[in-house]
Amino acid sequence: MDSTLAHKLHIPLKPLPHHITVHALNGQKLPAISHITEDITLITPGNHSQSTTISIHILDSPLAPIVLCHPWLLLHNPKIDWSSNSILSWSVCCREFSISLPQNIQALSGSCVIIKCRFEIQKQYEKDLTEKAATGLWLKDGVKIDTHLVFNSKDTKPNHLNGKITGKLHEKNCTTIFYNVSSKHTDSPPKPTVQLYVDQKKVKDQEEVLEVLEGSSVSLHCSAETLCSSPPPTLTWSSTPRIPLSESSRREELISDLNFTATHRQHRVTFTCTITYQLQHQNKTAQDNITVHVQYSPKNTSVSVLPSSSVLEGSSVTLICSSEANPAVNYTWSRESEGQMKQLKTGDTLTFARIDLKHRGLYYCTAQNQHGTQNSPVMLDIQYAPKNTSVSVLPSSSVLEGSSVTLTCSSEANPAVNYTWSRESEGQMKQLQTGDTLTFGRIDLKQRGWYHCTAQNQHGTQNSSVMLDIQYAPKNTSVSVLPSSSVLEGSSVTLTCSSEANPAVNYTWSRESEGQMEQLQTGDTLTFGRIDLKHRGWYYCTAQNQHGTQNSSVMLDIQYCQQVTVSFLIILSLILVHFALTVGLALHKIRQLSSKLKVGLHRLIVDKVMQHEDDDDDDGVEECFCFQAQNEAAGTYSSLQLSAPSAEYDTLNIMGSDTINNK
């Protein structure tokens, strides 16, 4: 007897006619057929609305009084190629004596098994069905009591199964429990089984993989057979890799549910349901698993740079994009250019064989699949040695003495440079300080010169220099006179003006004339080719630049002689009168000169030279005599100048001429 349908449809036993023919259309519900209490819906392949005949043939069983029948549902349609599945064979009990049993019974070796059982008898025998009078018999592999009996509820034998009927026989319940079952009680060794299935989710053929979309609700149900064990079996959930699980169980039915909202964290996670039977000597387990594949948009998109996102100019660089997504993403590289995104290429890598400064900037990797898009930026930092190093000076490299000056050094480099200031001193470089600025609060002349800024990072060094030019107004202005500021009339005289200043000064010469300043000329020199008395007086040199002016003056003293003719004896007399104390010495020197020159003098021209140094000082008057000795034969002269004697002594100066002839 095939008890599958009987157990499934809860078939009551009622007699059926030997043949029933029913006509119906595809999809039409059929009326209840005899003992079948549920409506049957006939659905033929191809979903065609055609007339179909259901024929049920009653076959008598040789085992009276139980009669078995095999109804054949013949689905006839000549236009359709029917497969073997088109013919369904159901076997049901067709008389009023019947029994309902599970189709398959499984038990664990060493454990117990409960067989649910119900039966029906003819109504006429129900009055004799009492608990005391009823006996339950179980037969295996046949129906002969002598050879196939394995259990008698009233007579226990050593070679019989150890068990008891737990159902009430008078209530037609023959449920039985068997203890300490083993593999000898079955044709195939029993194994505990677990069934794992998903509500409204299709599991792929044999792979046991579940495809779900992120954000959807997933319900995993685990069920196990209700096998007999004490304590009762347990169902547990686990996952690989491990994640927190929240489950609900219906222990009385041995069903456990695992509900969750799918996220990318559950992608490729294998969920396992395990049933554990606690036996006397050991635990027996069974399990089933399913792997969840979650489809989701790109997440955790990132860009890695080899060798580094900070790379030396001229190096090779590779950008690699990665993203977590299901299904796999497509990668697109782009770069921001002039405020707009410029697409560069596709693929997960972007390579620069020799990178330069024009490649620096922000790069974007876009990962995309049918569920969404995600970007990841990376800043490509190009490092290089210092270049374009320069020094700027505020307010200017040419600055007025006493001002505040700041030197600022700048350089293009990556990473940033360190600045060092130095100055050349006595042929060597003297380090001053570090930092990009060098400040002088009040600069002076000693700080003028060349200053050097050195910019340095780990990739190189570059220098820049600046000349600090300290400007100032004229100082130490002076006038020098060649040959002298006291010069003989008719001589050549040069006045030279000098001054210390930055920038260089312009010189202007002027002279005081009748109480007013008369400008003469410009330039650092003033020359008189043949000076005369009208040139005597005060001369002024003015040194001037944009920062100031300074003057220097000099008194030009013009010396000259007056000529008188006297005899040699008169001159000697005058000398004796005026210079009583020194006349002897003077006569002695004159005689020595006369003897050396050996000149016959007939007359002596005496020039008296008067010089006035200051009109306001009467004591400043000097007198001199110019003696000109004339050689009558040659017609030449020699001049002799005598200075006026002081109160204590007198000095006679003799000026010789190369034109005197010796005789």
TrEMBL record:
Transmembrane feature ranges: 566-587
All copies of domain Ig-like, residue ranges: 192-291, 298-381, 386-469, 474-557
PROSITE patterns given in the database record: IG_LIKE
Pfam families linked to this entry: Ig_3
Cross-referenced SMART domains: IG, IGc2
InterPro entries found in the cross-reference section: Ig-like_dom, Ig-like_dom_sf, Ig-like_fold, Ig_sub, Ig_sub2, VCAM-1
Superkingdom as given in the UniProt entry: Eukaryota
Family matches, as Gene3D superfamilies: Immunoglobulins
Keywords: Membrane, Transmembrane, Transmembrane helix
GO biological process annotation, one example: cell-cell adhesion
Entry keyword Transmembrane: yes
One Gene Ontology CC term in the entry: membrane
Record keyword GTP-binding present: no
Name of the protein described by the UniProt record: B-cell receptor CD22-like
Organism the protein comes from: Carassius auratus
